[in-house]
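Possible race condition, two jobs.
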Amino acid sequence: MFWEKKLGSWVDNIRGRAALPLRLELWNGQQLDFGQHTPHVTVRVPHASALTYLLTPSLFNLGQAYVEGKIEVEGRVNEIISVGNALARYTLKQEGKFARIARSFHHTRKIDEEAIRYHYDVSNEFYSMWLDKNMVYSCAYFEHGDEDLDTAQLKKIDHILTKIRLQPGQTLLDIGCGWGALVIRAAEKYGARCVGITLSQNQCDLARERVARAGLSDRVDIRLEDYRDAGGTYDRITSVGMFEHVGARNLPLYFSRMRELLADDGVAMNHGITTTDPRDGETAYGGGEFIAKYVFPQGELHHIGTVLRTMQEGGLEALDVENLRRHYAKTCSAWADNFETNAERIKPLVDAKRFRIWRVYLAGCAYAFMQDWISLYQILCTKAGRDVSSLPWSRRYMYDA
C-alpha cells in the first residue's frame, strides 16, 4: 500500500540520522521502533488518516493530533516533547512554511479581553494545582539555583520591588496583576499603596479575596480594567507577564500609556517573554502556530531589540536589562512536574482536550526556553529625557537590600 511505503521510508530516514526512544503502534498491530533500546515514548495511531500528522511532524501537527485525540501518546511528558522536537528537526526544514515567521494580530479591547479570559479563566483551582502557593504565573527568580518554586517566586517579586526601589507610602500600579501576589507583597512588606488591574474575572475575584484576607483592602485596590483605560499617576509601575498580549502594533501605545501613568520621577519595570529571532519570528517548526491556536490566542512575542526600540518610541528610557531565560526554563520545568504529579486531581477540573493542551504547553515551554527559542527580560525604565543623576550609580542596591 502507498502509506506503508511512505511510512517505512520516513522511519528509515529518521533511523539513519538518530536513534530515538520512540515506538509507533499502528491500528493493524504493527510496531515500528526508531531505536534499538526500550522506547520511552509510545505513539498509538488508531487510524491510517492520522499518519498525515506524523509524516509532516511539525510541532503544530503533532500537538494538534495529540490534543484533538487523533493519536495516543504514552511516556513522560519531557521525553514526549524531546521526541516530538526531534521528529520535526529530522524531517522538516526550518525555512519556508516552518520558519520562525512573524505574525501580527488585530487587538481591540474586546478581542484582548476574550483572549485573556480564554487562557486565564479556566478555573482558579486548576491553576492552584501546579503553580506555587501564591499562584504567581510568571518566571521565578532562582537566586542560587536550588530554591523551591514557592521561594523562587517570592524572590522574584522581591527582586522586582527592590529594583524599582519601592518605598513606604509610594503608589504602585501593577498592570496584569494576576491573582494579586505582587501587590499584596508590595503593601505588606514595602508599605506601598497599590492598584492591580486584570482582564480576567477569575483572577480579579480571587485577588480581591486574598487582599481582604490579608487585611489590606485599605491599601490595595484590584480592578477589572484594560491598561488603555487606566487612569491616575503612580510612583512605580510594574508589568509582569502582560505585554505578550499587547501586540506588535500596540507596543508604542502600551509604553506611552505606561509613561502617561508614571510620575515624572517614577520608575517602571516590564517583565516579559521575548522571541530570540531578531526578525520577531515565533518558535520554529510550527510551535508558535500551536501556541496561537490552543494556548494564547492573539499572543505575540517580540525581540528584545524591538522592545527597547518601541519603549523609546513610547517615551521611556531603559535603565537596566536582565535576561532570565534559564530561570524561566527552570520555572516551566517545575510547573510541568507539578502538573504531572497532580494529573489525576487536575483531570476532573477540565475537559480532556484542555488537559492535554496544558500538559504539552508547559513542558514545551520549558524546552523552548532551554533551546534559546524564547527568552525573558526584565527592563527597568523611567521617563525619557529626565535628569537621572539621583538614581543609584550601580546595580549593587538590587542585591544588598
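Job #2 (started ~2 s after job #1):
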Amino acid sequence: MKSKLIATALTLTLGFGGLAAALPETTVAANLDEKLNDVKKKQSENEQELKEKESELADVHEEQEDVHADIERLENEIAETDDQISAKENEINKTNEEIDQLKEEIAVLEDRIAERDKLLKDRVRSMQQNGGGTVDYMEVLLGSKDFGDLVERVLALNTIADQDKKILEEHKADKLSVEEKKAEVEEKLASLQDQKAELEQLKKDLDAKKAEKDKLMESLEEEEGELHNHMMDLNESAELLQAQEKAVQQEIKRAEEEARKAEEARKAAAAKAAKEKAAKEKAAAEAAAAAKKAEKSSSSSESSSNSAPAPAPEPEPAPAPAPTGSAIFNKPAAGPITSGYGSRWGGMHEGIDIARAGDTPVSAAAAGTVLKSYHSSSYGNVVFITHSINGQMYTTVYAHLKNRAVSTGQSVSAGTYLGTMGNTGRSTGKHLHFEIHKGGWNASKSNSVNPMNYLR
C-alpha cells in the first residue's frame, strides 16, 4: 500500500509575457488568469489525492484493529498457557517431593527386605545343617521329657513354621509394594513431564504467532506513519496551493497596476516629448523669421545677414534597461555558504545553507509577495515568497528561521527583514536554508535551481 509522494505542484512556470516591456493590461491579466486556473486545477488534484490517502489510512486503521484483537487473544492464550505451565510445574514439584518421600519409604522397605533376606538365608543354612533342609519332627517329639514338653515342642514348631511363612509373605508384599510405588511415581512424573512439554510447545507456537502479529502491526504502524507523513505533505501542499492562488491573484493586481502606471508613464512621456517638440519647432520658426527680417533690414552686410541657426536640442537619455542575465537575487543573509546545492547524505539538497554566529538578519532576496509564512515540521519557521522578474515567476524559500517578521500575503521589497537566522524544524545547527525555484514550489522540488547561479 506504499504510495509514492506525488509531486503536488505549485508548478507555476509563469510567463508573464514581458511585464518589463509594459504589455497591455488585458494581456497581463489573461496570462495570469490562465496560470491561476492551473493552480486551481492542481489544488483540486491535491484534494482528491488527500481523500484517497485518508481512505487508505482508514483501511490501515481497520486492519490494525483486527491485528490488535488477534494479538490480544494470543496474549490471553499465552497468559493462560503460562498459568497452566506454572500449575504443571507445581504438580511436578509436588510429585518430586512425593518421589523423595517414596524414595525414603523404598529405602526403609529395602532395608527390611535386606534384613529378611539375611534371616531367611540363615534359616535355610540352618535347615541345610540339620539334614537337608527339613526339621526332624520325630527327633523333636521323641526328645520330649513328658507330654507337656511334647506339646510345647509341637507348638514351637508350628510357631516357627508360621513365622517363616509370614516373613516370606511380608517379604513378597514389600517387594511388590516397592515395585508398584516406583512404577506409579515414574508413570506420574512421565505424564506430568509430557503435559509440560506439550504446554511449552503450545506456548512456543503462540509466541511465534504473536511475533508474526507484532511484525505485522509494526509494518502497519510504519505504513500508517508514512501515510500520515504523506498526508502532512499533501496538507502543506494544499495550504501552499491555496496561498499560491491568493499570491497569484495579488500578482494579477500588482501586474495590472504596474502595466497601468507604465502606460500612464508612456503617455506622459509621449505628451512631454510632443510638447517639447512643438516648443522646439516654434522656437526654430521664430528664429528663422527673425533671421529673415534681419536679412531684409541690413543689405549692406551680407555676412551679418546669415544668423547662426538655433542649436539642436539634446536627445533625452534612454531609460535604463531591465536587468538581464541570471544574477537577479540578492544574497539573503551574511555569512559563508556551508552547504551547497546538490547531492548530500544520499539525497538531494535543493538549496544552499548560509551559517553565521550571532543574531544574523535574513532579508528578501527580491521584491515579491509572501506566499506563505508559517511553522513547518521540516522547514521550521519558514517564509515562501513569490517573485515576478522579467516576466518569469520565481519562488524563494527561507527556512529554519528563529522568528518570522512577515505574514502571508504581504508585499515585500528587496531587503525587507524576514526574520533572524535560527535552528528550528529539522535542522542541525543555526543556519539559513535558502532555495530558489524557477516557477512554483512543489513537494518534489522539481523546479529547484542552484541559487548560486542567480545571486548577485
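The radius of gyration is 56 Å.
Logs attached separately.
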